[in-house]
Amino acid sequence: MADRNTDTVMKKTLAPVAALLIGISILLTGQGLQGTLLPIRASLEEFATISIGIMGAMYFLGFTAGCLRGGELVRRVGHIRVFAAMTALASSIPLLHGLFLNPWIWGLFRMITGFCFAVLYVVIESWLNEQSSNETRGTIFSIYLTCLELLVIHAVCAWCLSSAVITTVLMLLVAIPITGKES
Questions:
Q1: Please, are residues 87 and 34 in contact by the beta-carbon 8 Å criterion?
Q2: Helices 137-151 & 18-44 angle (0-180, nearest 10)
Q3: What are the residues whose beta carbons fall under 8 Å from the beta carbon of 67, sequence distance 6 or more?
Q4: If you write DSSP's letter for every residue of the chain in order, what string do you get?
């Protein structure tokens, strides 16, 4: 009975944001792939190592600008329009890398990509915040952050695994004293 209630609560919690979470997962997979392949492609094109490093830094310059401007964009035109515009722009930039084999232009493209993704994070997180209640916010954001960990920062390391195992074991150990008592 408890399992069915848990399933029902989880479905009610995730239903309003399921499409957004799936979209985020797909988007973040693409971002991770681009972030991995672009420096490899730049190296194959014989860009200088310093140029490749500057391209990486340009992403974060754009990201910083996006963090500063994202909230204003959402307030002015709304979540859906900003999400669509930033997704379209971020999706078209990788195509342009193939047309222009110039490290300075690639740096500009990386800055635009960084801006887009920062704004997308602002949109996504404010959207999730609006779509969740005080009771469901923790669950929704933990699922969102799990997507981020796995798809963006690739948090599949020994420490990450160990901490997850330790946390799970501790949570399971709580059941021993509780289930051993007579009710």
A1: no
A2: 20
A3: 118, 121, 122
A4: -HHHHHHHHHHHHHGGGHHHHHHHHHHHHHHHHHHHHHHHHHHHTT--HHHHHHHHHHHHHHHHHHHHHHHHHHHHH-HHHHHHHHHHHHHHHHHHHTT---HHHHHHHHHHHHHHHHHHHHHHHHHHHHHS-TTTHHHHHHHHHHHHHHHTS---SHHHHHHHHHHHHHHHHTHHHHHHS--
CA distance 114 to 120: 10
Q: Which two tokens stand for residue 167?
A: 């946390």
Cα 116 from Cα 113, distance rounded (Å): 5
Distance CA 176, CA 97 (A): 57
Examine the pLDDT at 180 and tell me if it is beyond 60.
no
CA separation, residue 148 to residues 27, 28, 53, 163 (Å) = 11, 7, 23, 17
Which residue has better confidence, 62 or 3?
A: 62
Write the pLDDT tens digit of every residue in 4-32. 666 666 666 677 677 777 777 778 777 87
CA distance 96 to 94: 5
CB 19 within 8 A of CB 128: no
Model's pTM, two decimal places? 0.73
